[in-house]
C-alpha cells in the first residue's frame, strides 16, 4: 500500500481488492470494527470512514443487529484497458467533438474532496464538458482534478487535445493506469434531458469514476451521464482457473 495517502483510502483499496478477489463474497459479513482496527492498526474513526465510503458506493450494507454485509447492488467492473470516453467512442467508429467546455478553479464539495482524498481547502479544476458523437450530443462530463497536477492548465489546452487522458499523458506525463468505476442505470433529469436532447426520465447510463496513475495517486474524480439509447458498454469476464 502507498503510505503517502490517507489511511482510510489505503484500507478501502485493500478491502476492494478482497471483494474483487473473492476473499469477501456477496452476502458475507465483514469482520467487526474492533477486529478491523486491530488488523489495520488504526482507530475506529478511520474504519468507520472506510466502511461508510464503501456503503455509499454500494459495496456494503448494514444489517441491524448482525453487522456489515457485502452487497451487489451496483454493477462494478474492472476493465482490461482503461481509456478515455473519447477513445471508447472512436473505437466504435463515431466522430467525436466537444459541444461545450467550461473550466473553473474551485474548492471541492465535501463529497468530491473525499473521493480525491484531499482536504476541502485544496483547489481543484472542475471541467464540464458536453461531448458529441456524429454531431449529436451523447454525454455530459464533470471531471475534478487537483490543481497541483495541472500547473499551467487552461481551456485552450483542452480544446487542443480533446481527450483529457491524452492531455494528461502527453502534456503532464501523467498516465492513467487504473480506474474504479460504478455504473448505474438512471432516469434523465431536466438538465440532462435538455442538454442531451432527451425526454425527462429517459434512460441514461451514469458512470462514476476514480482514476489512478502509475504511482497509485488519485488523479481524477469523474461523473458522466450518457444517452442510454446511443451507447453500451461491453464487459468481458473470464472464469478464474484455480
UniProtKB/TrEMBL annotation:
Residues 5-73 form the HTH gntR-type domain. One of its GO terms (molecular function) is DNA-binding transcription factor activity. SMART domains: HTH_GNTR, UTRA. PROSITE patterns: HTH_GNTR. GO terms for biological process: negative regulation of DNA-templated transcription. Transmembrane segments: none annotated. Keywords: DNA-binding, Transcription, Transcription regulation. The keyword Lipoprotein does not apply. Signal peptide: none annotated. It holds the Pfam family UTRA. InterPro entries: Bact_HTH_transcr_reg (IPR050679), Chorismate_lyase_/UTRA_dom_sf (IPR028978), Tscrpt_reg_HTH_GntR (IPR000524), UTRA (IPR011663), WH-like_DNA-bd_sf (IPR036388), WH_DNA-bd_sf (IPR036390). PANTHER family: MANNOSYL-D-GLYCERATE TRANSPORT/METABOLISM SYSTEM REPRESSOR MNGR-RELATED (PTHR44846), MANNOSYL-D-GLYCERATE TRANSPORT_METABOLISM SYSTEM REPRESSOR MNGR-RELATED (PTHR44846:SF1). This is Putative fructoselysine utilization operon transcriptional repressor. It comes from bioreactor metagenome.
Amino acid at each position: 500500500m502507498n503510505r503517502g495517502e490517507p489511511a482510510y483510502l489505503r484500507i478501502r483499496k485493500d478491502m476492494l481488492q478482497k471483494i474483487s478477489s473473492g476473499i469477501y463474497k456477496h452476502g458475507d459479513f465483514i469482520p467487526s470494527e474492533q477486529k478491523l482496527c486491530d488488523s489495520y492498526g488504526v482507530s475506529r474513526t478511520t474504519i468507520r470512514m472506510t466502511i461508510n465510503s464503501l456503503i455509499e458506493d454500494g459495496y456494503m450494507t448494514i444489517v441491524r443487529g448482525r453487522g456489515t454485509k457485502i452487497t451487489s447492488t451496483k454493477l462494478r467492473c474492472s476493465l482490461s484497458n482503461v481509456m478515455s470516453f473519447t477513445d471508447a467512442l472512436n473505437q466504435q467508429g463515431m466522430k467525436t467533438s466537444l459541444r461545450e467546455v467550461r473550466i473553473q478553479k474551485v474548492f471541492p464539495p465535501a463529497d468530491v474532496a473525499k473521493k480525491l482524498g484531499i482536504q476541502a481547502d485544496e483547489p481543484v479544476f472542475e471541467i464540464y464538458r458536453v461531448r458529441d458523437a456524429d454531431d449529436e450530443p451523447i454525454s455530459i462530463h464533470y471531471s475534478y482534478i487537483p490543481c497541483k497536477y495541472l500547473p499551467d492548465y487552461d481551456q485552450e489546452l483542452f480544446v487542443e487535445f480533446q481527450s483529457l487522458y491524452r492531455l494528461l499523458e502527453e502534456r503532464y506525463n501523467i498516465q492513467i493506469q487504473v480506474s474504479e468505476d460504478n455504473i448505474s442505470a438512471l432516469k434523465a433529469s431536466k438538465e440532462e434531458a435538455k442538454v442531451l436532447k432527451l425526454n425527462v426520465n429517459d434512460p441514461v447510463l451514469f458512470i462514476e469514476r476514480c482514476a489512478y496513475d502509475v504511482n497509485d495517486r488519485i488523479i481524477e474524480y469523474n461523473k458522466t451521464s450518457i444517452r442510454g439509447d446511443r451507447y453500451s458498454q461491453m464487459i468481458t469476464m473470464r472464469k478464474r482457473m484455480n
